[in-house]
Amino acid sequence: MSSNPSPEQSLDKQPPAPQQQPVPPANIHAGFDPHSGQSWLFPVDFVTPDYLPLIVEKTLYHNSLVILPNRFEVSFVAAVVMHNVYRWYPFGKVVFICSNRKATQDQRAACDRLMKFVPSDVVDMALKPHERVRNWATKRAFFITSHTMAGEMARQEAERVAMRKIKLVVIEDPQLDVRAHSAIIQKLTEMGANFRVLCVTTTHGKTVEPAQLKQWHISNIELQWGNPQEKPDEWLMNKKEISNIVTVLGTVMDGLLAELQLLTQRYLANLHACKQIANTSLFETITADHIRQERTRYELSVLTGVVRKNHFEVMRNFHMAEKLVLAHRILARDGVVALMDYFHLQNDALGQADSELTAFLHKVRQGVYTAPHPKFTTLDNFLREFFQQRTSVVAAALRILIVVERTDAVLLVNRILKNIPESKHRCLIDSNYASYVDQFRTGELNVLVVPVEIEPSIELGHTDLVVLFNITDHPLEFLCHIARTRGGQPGAIVTMTTEGPEQEEITEIINNRRMHYYENRDILPIGVDLSDSMVRGSPALIPPGFQPKGRHVLFNRQATTVVEATSSCASPSPTLLPISPQLVVAEKRRVLEVLSDSPATYDAINGCTYYQVMQVPSQPSLVRTPGDKQEAEEAKSPGGGQ
After folding, report:
1. Could you cite one Gene Ontology molecular function of this protein (predicted)?
2. Domain locations in the chain?
3. CATH says 249-367 is which class?
4. 3-state class of 285 per DSSP?
5. In terms of pTM, does the model score above 0.70?
6. I want to staple 610 with a disulfide (CB 3.0 to 4.6 A). Which of 343, 441, 588, 601 is the partner?
7. Which residues, 6+ apart, have CB-to-CB distance to 255 below 8 Å?
């Protein structure tokens, strides 16, 4: 009689469980577009140094730290690299990170001007938490601050699927917030994302420590100093006197500012009563950035489970306080036109629900003003006096450069110059400025009105007067543009400010301009071997077997299109004809669709790449009209081609 085995014996005799096979790694190149991956694009609409294409090509293959002489070139490289990675991965995501929100807005504007994304794919992540969650799943190009990005990385696991799709992380001035930027890169690596890292900064930035390179996964460094032969900033910024003309606001503007301040104080007092911000007695010390930081801190506390009963009222006060503080700054420094344009672009329901604010805007809109801001009157009187002090022959030979910040200011300055008989002026409000610059050099024009974004890319030669007008948010950039205006030494340099905070701000910058514009020759440690501090190799963003060829592309073909249109006319006009923004956008998209396959040539001996500048042939309209559809149907019908 056989006995049944004990439970212990039966367990011992069981066969060992099969070992679990490791999950094969996911394809890190999934989503790569083989057609777009045949080339990488570089825009030639702007005048750029010869070293920028080579730097862009290296950053596409390696995690790079790029240090360039000025902010324009930094924004240019970031925009070009973002657009190429955006093309290569149609379902991937690119992220631009900076320590402050104003820099993210500037980079987004630079991308729109240089190499535009599809508008529906772009988002500025200065939003509410639930809106950010939705945008991570639907958008592809993100502009976000380092503080907000760190909070997003530490949130729920649900966003990891979207985070793994990130293919490029661009960090501007990474040495300003080393801990946050290092944590972001480390967290993305832990999530399993296969992405490229691009850190960009200027030569007058803070020194980069060797230990930081490994934290940012840097394997390549590109450093380019300013060309001493084309950079007269040592003479201009340290020895040349810069005159500052201060404008008094006047009773009308003071009354509007006082009324707007009372509207803002209501929301600030409510936040102070809820213990969300400190004392609000000194209104001049409160900034929109400060309110934005307090709002972010409150939102993070809500995510931890601390929700106030009046949560909606607190968020409404934060929103309106930030909006009105910024509106007060715009009114004081730019005038009523900029104020109305600001509220028109915002156009939110909370602002329209405030009856007192609506009544104030209606009052401003219906008002009658001699000028949108007293500073425009000051500019008018200054230019008239400047021309009148010179004879007609001398006035015709003058070269005056007026640099402004806002587009509406360009149009208002243009209106002022129309009423000055001695003025032969043009306004550069887009990238098609070649003919106007040539006319300015030859003397056909004596006044150029240039936005702050376009000025670094033009070569003007000798200028008799440089007027820095409308210095609101970019005072450092404005003064830096003086040094970057290539050519002969300009004459008088004048800044125009309003009394109060703007006057104090520009005075401090002018007095301390040595520390602002001397290049930091210790931006990288001297005498230190950085190779041991960098990582070996970078993640492969391009699949094996692909070698994208460089293409120089004319993204904005307005000048070419106009020349073709006017060449058949009997009497061609010497200036370029206007073109609608819709046609410009269509031309940019058309360039992407008709790329040629002619390869670039790489000179391995000299280490140079030679690119072919593409002239895109004329293409049919992208939008088919009803007449086009009827012709297509007739062609398809039997006998339609006869």
Report:
1. four-way junction helicase activity
2. 36-219, 249-367, 373-520
3. mainly alpha
4. helix
5. no
6. 601
7. none
